[in-house]
Amino acid sequence: MKTKQELISAVKTQLALEYNCAPEDFSSNENIITLQRNSPKRRHYIDGAFFFQMVTFGNNAVITSNESMHEWLKDYVKGKSGHWLFEHNNLMDIEKKLNEYGKKLSQTHHMFLPYKEAAHKETSSIENQFEIKCFEDKAIHQFYEGKMFPNALCRKFDPKRPDVLAIAAYDGKEIIAMAGCSADTPDLWQVGIDVNENYRGRGLGTYLVTELKNEILNRGKIPFYGTSLSNLASWGIALNCGFYPVWIEISTIEK
Predict the structure, then answer these.
(1) Same domain, 95 and 137
(2) How far is the C-alpha of 123 from the C-alpha of 204, rounded, in Å?
(3) Most exposed: 31, 43, 168, 238, by fewest CB within 10 Å?
């Protein structure tokens, strides 16, 4: 497994393509504003570039946006610590400005990287109770129609960020939990998890995410995990599986 610094460096190299900056800019003491860039090597979450997108690794903020916002942004972020721009009062000010362009902010995305290959605490218990099955590539497509796994899988097959691996737990013939990952880039694979509400609290989420994370690492890829600020159950799974918080992002959607 790569070291923590090697993993962070790989993420910064990827984000530099998307934020139109240099990887070292994410470690600067100054907030940085760049012109939005539609890199062909970006993570494909929307068609084209975001109107506004902001990221912090805990120190400064790097913001990429439409040029029409640059003058206002430069004035607004002056003298502010970058990571504090993600606090509610500052996001409200940014949202108000974005409304003038028919945009609004999406939720904040709190992103995690692995720091160890976590061992299972309840492996025998899970494997004795439930059947575990793995699926790859086209074998995953059978699960799109039911839309039962909105966090583990994409809504439909997306060739720009295809679902590549999934691990499911069965109780009899029923799938009661699934962890899946999409290849958001060739090397960065995003992990998600869904657990049937009747089976939560049994360690299924931690078991499946750990299995998936370790398999991604075994394939020489980088697993990353994202969740919202208030989803404490999801945070708990991430931490239990050997992930730790590394960066935070926010972008825009249509108003």
Answers:
(1) no
(2) 10
(3) 43
Cα–Cα distances (Å) from 152 to 24, 65, 181, 193, in that order, read 32, 30, 7, 4
Dihedral sign from CA coordinates of 7, 240, 244, 77: positive
Judge whether 249 lies within some domain.
no
Average pLDDT over residues 191-199: 97
Alpha carbons 240 and 243: distance in angstroms, whole number: 7
pLDDT of residue 6: 95
What's the chain's average pLDDT?
95
Contact, 150 vs 193, CB < 8 A? no
* List of residues 6+ apart from 65 with CB closer than 8 A: 33, 34, 35, 36, 51, 52, 53, 73
CB of 170 closer than 8 Å to CB of 176: yes
Domain that holds residue 24: 4-105
* Distance, CA of 112 to CA of 190 (rounded, Å): 10
The reply to whether 134 and 228 lie within a common domain is yes
| 183 falls within a domain | yes
Q: Across-strand partners of 165?
A: 136, 181
pLDDT tens profile 101-122? 999 999 999 999 998 655 555 5
Kindly give, in sequence order, each residue whose CB lies less than 8 Å from that of residue 119, ignoring residues fewer than 6 positions away: none
Per-residue pLDDT, averaged over 73-82, amounts to: 97
